[in-house]
Amino acid sequence: MKKIRKAIFPVGGLGTRFLPATKAMPKEMLPVVDKPIIQYAVEEAWAAGIEECIFVTGRGKSAIEDHFDYSYELQDTLHKRGKSEFLEKVRSCTPKAGQMAYIRQQEALGLGHAVWCARNLIGDEPFAVLLADDMVMADRSCLQQMIEAYEKVGGNIVALEDVPRARTGSYGIVTPKKQTGNLVTASSIVEKPEPEEAPSTLAVIGRYILQPEIFDFLEEKQIGAGGEIQLTDAIAKIIKTQPFHGLLFEGQRFDCGNQLGFLEANIAFALQRPDLKAGMQGFLDKY
Ligand code: UTP
Fold this sequence. Notes:
CATH superfamily: Spore Coat Polysaccharide Biosynthesis Protein SpsA, Chain A
CATH class: Alpha Beta
Largest sheet: 5 strands, mixed, barrel
Structural class: alpha/beta
Low-confidence stretches: none
CATH topology: Spore Coat Polysaccharide Biosynthesis Protein SpsA, Chain A
Strand content: 15-25%
Number of strands: 13
Number of helices: 11
CATH architecture: Alpha-Beta Complex
Distance between the termini: 53 Å
Bound molecules: uridine 5'-triphosphate
């Protein structure tokens, strides 16, 4: 079984639900407490042993590249002023040289298209996909849990969350065949089904482990839900030829792609911080 060494971070979307904040700034740079959401995703990948991060970006997303770059002037100034605590924070998000690659998705044609854009950088090996706007608070990171499951069953794995039936229209939903512990064997997947048509309430969240053959199906560039090239549609095809599992991960997910989920993440992550907990609790009591 080939090790998962590479991860794709699709960050080419327009982030329309966060306009005007995302007019000149990438959605993925919105901070939860004091860290951009993309940094949480990258740290999750690093913690799970990922060696190469591939960002699929678009116009107006260069702040992401700058964020993970060496910042000479800032670091030099912090060093000279003896601000070692801040210097450490800046250093912590600088990868090893050559560990990050950036490729442009020239048009935001959908998540499936964004993943397809990274095909030449992935080559012939299994890989992870992380959507930064799905944040997971967990003792063992969500991707780590998925890689542990992958080492047992191989194939393709998605992270699953049981959602209220009224919400199925916002997710890819799987048809479960069998469940062993928290691992679900699924026979099909459908993107954004209406609640009355959804095969279950098991929703795919933004973490995937995929085999490289997925690119053959993405190559077809099938237009799916919302007029976009959907990753779910390619997964629906690969399921017919390869093992496919969903992992009911341990942890709490925050959908930072919409305002309420983003605000909730800020509160929950602030309450985890010893330096902010009491102050945040005070605000919650006040309001
Ligand atoms: P979303 O569905 O949240 O789309 O994409 P979005 O454009 O970011 O946000 P809204 O819906 O307009 O508010 C989920 C993930 O897929 C990426 C996004 O950057 C996000 O990380 N994506 C989406 C792409 O990289 N390219 C696309 O064409 C679409």
